[in-house]
Amino acid sequence: MPVSLVGQLVVAISSRALFDFEEENQVFEASDDRAYMQLQLERVDSPAKPGVAFSLVNKLLAFNRDAARVEVVILSRNDPVSGMRVFRSAKHYGLPIQRGVFTRGQSPWRYLRPLSANLFLSTNEADVRSALAAGVPAARVYPDSARASSAHPNEVRIAFDGDAVLFSDEAEQVFQRDGLDAFQTHERDQAQTPLAAGPFKPLLEALQRLQSEPSQGMRIRTALVTARSAPAHERAVRTLMGWRIEVDEAMFLGGLPKGEFLREFEPDFFFDDQTGHIENAAAHVPAGHVAAGVRNRVVE
Question: Which of 20, 79, 127, 161 does the annotation list as catalytic?
Answer without folding.
Answer: 161
